[in-house]
Amino acid sequence: MLVGGHAAATSCPPLATGVACVLSPEHLAAQLRHPHGDHALAVAESMNRSNGALNQAAIALLAVAAREQVLEIGPGNAAFAADLLRAPGSRYLGVEVSADMVDAAQDRLTAADLHDRAAVRLGDVHALDLEDACIDAALAVNTVYFWEQPALALAELARVLRPGGRLCLAFGDAAFMRTLPFTAHGFHLHELADVELAMRSSGLRVCGWRAHRETGTSNDGRQVEKHFHLLLARR
């Protein structure tokens, strides 16, 4: 059972008009990469709203089955953990780089009475503190931009997946992402073909692709035409 302990709560001052009104593109990019400090919880809620439909599309594509162990990379405050735990007997582990998000996620899981089936731990996708072949289904939504070594991260995900296990990656189309001012500050944007090649090179078999398009609000508060890719691969 891949679950962990409870952590203390954090707090954040309310941002009446959203993070876009108080953070520069550079500071917003830093918060999206690693939510921290006074703005951490507001940034998390902004991400949840902005990425909600994309997360639901990725969860549907991953299709968690009964009694499966699920891993989510970069879950933030674990807003979508409950959706990943709909299958009976399924269990959830989130690996998150932000200590503030780990605290917020554990509080959310406890409030939702999911603490016996789910946990979020501090960690790094490049060096997962997990045994080989212990995960049935893995998910990473809008996190590949922050992987300093994508090949190493994908190799780690392949290592922890059981034979036949699934990985769903969801990420913005590079051309679309370049229209967002904050992505100029430390985002690594990837073409679809390059991500597919990296997955195959890590030992994963790409078995599905879907485009996700929607009109909505970006993390910088603008109305945009969004374009994302969802890739499904098997170990």
Explained architecture:
By secondary structure, this protein is of the alpha/beta class. Helices cover 31% and strands 26% of the residues. The chain contains 8 helices and 7 strands; from the N terminus they run αααβαβαββαβααββ. The chain has helices at 25-33, 40-50, 52-62, 81-84, 99-111, 150-160, 174-177, 192-201, and strands spanning 69-73, 91-96, 118-122, 135-141, 161-172, 205-217, 223-234. The chain has a 7-stranded mixed β-sheet. Helix 5 (99-111) links the parallel strand 2 (91-96) and strand 3 (118-122). The protein is globular.
Task: Give a short summary of the structure.
The chain has eight helices and seven strands. By secondary structure, the protein is an alpha/beta fold.
Give keywords.
single chain, 235 residues, alpha/beta, seven-stranded mixed beta sheet, 7 strands, 26% strand, globular, disordered N terminus
- Backbone structural class: alpha/beta
Q: What kind of assembly state do the chains in view correspond to?
A: single chain
Global morphology: globular
Major sheet: size, sense and barrel closure? 7 strands, mixed
Question: Which strand-content bin applies to the residues?
Answer: 25-35%
What's the number of helices?
A: 8
Strand arrangement within the widest β-sheet reads 3-2-1-4-5-7-6
Care to count the β-strands?
7
Percent range of helical residues: 25-40%
**Straight-line distance between termini:** 21 Å
State the low-pLDDT regions, or none.
1-17
The helix-strand sequence is: HHHEHEHEEHEHHEE
